[in-house]
Specification:
The structure is a single chain. A hairpin with a 5-residue loop joins strand 6 and strand 7. The protein starts with a helix and ends with a strand. By secondary structure, the protein is mainly beta. The protein has a single domain, classed as Porin, CATH 2.40.160. An eight-stranded antiparallel beta barrel has the order 1-2-3-4-5-6-7-8.
């Protein structure tokens, strides 16, 4: 039943942006909630929470985003829940259309395990890629829907970069 709940949340996530006219809103504060599928010690799913700031550049054709996020993951082969935080900076190329602004992005940052490390490194580097769309709702609000793929490596072993996630979020930007 929790999987159904997480899917419903991912289709209704919220992300905020500063109150400016729609075409001049170049800075945003974002808060998103969604659903993630994780591959760590076995596979699992979990709700994902993320907050950040973003700024439009180059006449709204590029967006720089800095964010932090959290997921409480029930790993398939772990006895207790794993609390995972991730933080990153991402650059996104955006089509500066009037109401719809599709984008793709790449980023780098890190990931941290706060509990249930069980021999793994607690902090590691991470890389990500995103595809999404920002939709103008009003002069001060936009809707943001995104799929983000993220990879990291807590093991430092022969299977480097073998852990990751696919996240779907929906947010309101104001």
């Amino acid at each position: 039943m929790s999987g159904v709940f997480a899917i419903v949340i991912s289709v209704g996530t919220v992300t905020p942006l500063r109150t400016l006219p729609a075409q001049d809103a170049d800075r945003a504060i974002t808060a998103a909630i969604g659903f993630g599928a994780f591959d760590m010690r076995g596979t699992s799913t979990a709700p994902v929470f993320r907050i950040g700031v973003e700024r439009e550049l180059l006449k709204q054709r590029a967006v720089v985003e800095v964010s932090v996020g959290y997921a409480g993951i029930s790993e398939q082969f772990a006895k207790t829940k794993t609390h995972l935080a991730f933080y990153e900076a991402q650059i996104q190329a955006q089509a500066a259309l009037s109401r719809f602004r599709p984008y793709v992005g790449v980023g780098a940052g890190g990931a941290s395990i706060f509990s249930n490390a069980e021999g793994r490194q607690r902090v590691t580097g991470a890389v990500s890629a995103a595809v999404g769309i920002r939709t103008l709702l009003s002069a001060t609000r936009r809707l943001k829907t995104e799929l983000r793929l993220r990879r990291w490596d807590f093991t430092s072993g022969s299977n480097a970069w073998d852990e990751g996630a696919a996240e779907v979020t929906l947010g309101l930007i104001f």
